[in-house]
Amino acid sequence: MRRGSLKQIGCMISVIGALFGLAGCGSVASNPASQEENTVPLTVEEVTLEDNTKKDTSKLEMASEMAEQNTEVEIQNAAAFGNPKEVLDNSVITSNVEVIKSETDELQIDFEIENAGVWTFVASKGKGLNLPDEVFIDDTKIEWTAPTADGGYIFPYMKANETGDMFLIDWEYQEYRFAIYGNAPQNTSDRDMAGKLALAIIRNLGEREIKE
Q1: pLDDT tens digit string along 81-103?
Q2: Mean per-residue pLDDT of the chain
Q3: Can you give the C-alpha Rg of the chain in angstroms?
Q4: What is the per-residue pLDDT for 61?
Q5: Which one is the CATH code of 79-202: 2.60.120, 3.40.1000, 1.20.1250, 3.40.50?
Q6: Sign of the C-alpha dihedral computed for residues 20, 21, 22 and 23 taken in this order
């Protein structure tokens, strides 16, 4: 009788143990599936899209920083120099206008002219201009009469270098000196465009009070 009871108890323990074992196996088996669901790798398209998004964001941030820097450069003493950036930006004959240097007493702007290439505007206060190392011949001089905003007149003139492949237009206003130079266009009409730009800049001189 006692042995029979022990056998029954042993069987019950075995059954209970088996049940717990199955339950344990079930819970262990479910964990890898859950982990696999949470760690599904990205596809090539998704990785590429993520990389491109990061690159685009970085480019936008760099462009924004450059725009802020350019804005700071462009406003340096612009009125005293005749607002040349504004004139060049609004001209139909110029493109790719870029401020190369801007200080309260010095300014340089490069810009492009169709059929002529890159030309340069320079200005300075109380010191000489940074000009090409060329000899410009007086016999090639072409002179214009240019009114200023304060009712005065300036007489800018164009000269060509010894080989005739470069031109220079220069003028002065109060303590300021100005020049436009670059490759000399073959056509007279294209060459006259430099004079028109100079006249447009001169018309702004004296328009407002110059603040030091």
Answers
A1: 999 999 999 999 899 999 999 88
A2: 76
A3: 39
A4: 62
A5: 3.40.1000
A6: positive
